[in-house]
């Protein structure tokens, strides 16, 4: 498993947490930051998946 997949998954979790905290305290900036981090994590996870596929081929 590529380390990008692990780091990407961690970013998704961290982003979800930021979104939840931002919503609960009414901080739109924190919520938007969390959404961006989630997207970044999903992309990084996908890149790691592609690397794994290429390596296995």
UniProtKB/TrEMBL annotation:
InterPro entries: CsbD, YjbJ_sf. Residues 4-56 form the CsbD-like domain. Belongs to the UPF0337 (CsbD) family. This is CsbD family protein.
């Amino acid at each position: 498993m590529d380390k990008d997949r692990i780091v990407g998954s961690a970013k998704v979790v961290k982003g979800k947490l930021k979104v939840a905290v931002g919503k609960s305290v009414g901080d739109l900036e924190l919520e938007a930051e969390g959404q961006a981090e989630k997207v970044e994590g999903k992309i990084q996870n996908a890149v790691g998946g592609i690397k794994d596929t290429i390596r296995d081929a």
